[in-house]
Amino acid sequence: MSWLNRVRSAIPFLPKRETPETLWHKCPECGAMVFLREYEENLYVCPRCEHHGRIGPRQRFEMLLDPGYTVLPPGQVREDPLKFRDSKRYTDRIRAARAATGESDALINARGAIDGHRAVMGVQDFAFMGGSMGMAVGAAFVAGARAAIQDRAPYIIVTAAGGARMQEGILSLMQMPKATVAIAELKEAGLPYIVLLADPTTGGVTASYAMLGDIHIAEPGALIGFAGQRVIESTIREKLPEGFQRAEYLKDHGMVDMVVHRRDLRARLALLLDYLTPRREAA
Question: Which of 15, 81, 132, 236 lies at a C-alpha separation of 20 to 30 Å from 1?
Fold first, then answer.
């Protein structure tokens, strides 16, 4: 060993310093810098302005389900059925999204309970290609609904999506009627279907299963709509009202049943399940 290697080996290297990216979170709404730990302990809600940040399926399950839930296996569908390519191949985009999120696709289901009431919950992950609705999402939705029917339990879906997945063309749009049929099966079985609208819920998801629930709950400030505000304004040639397509506006106009803060969601869901499911269905 040379003298340089001996000296270098003798130097006590300190652990990697925490950087601003690992210590602070900048709120996209008010611009406040919040300690990341404080932000996480506050359920990813800004303590200054109450802006509800976007979160993934695993955080949702931890927040809403009782301990001991199980994640259902993803459905198997054909990937890249159209051999689509724009600036990069569709398969490369899927691979990158899986590496970034650790999930197989944009909708994950879990079987568990909320305050003792059995439930199946599906959560869309906006971080996975904008939560876009493709064949895998359609298959996961149907699998979640049928798991709920098998368990004689409610199906709860948390939506967060930019709409249909353009890389799958007409096949992505076919997931809208496919999900609608699954919801009809839930209704025929006499089981509740509850929708929690998170930010953002737009496009074909809004035009299908996001607006077919027995009860619609929205998080504060969530963007909910079909087309974008600028598209609507240019079409009707009128200025839209302040807060148009936000959760509070939709509640005032009858599109949403209630707007519930994230810290109260679990208790509100438990109360709804008390009303909607008999006690003999409790886990």
Answer: 15
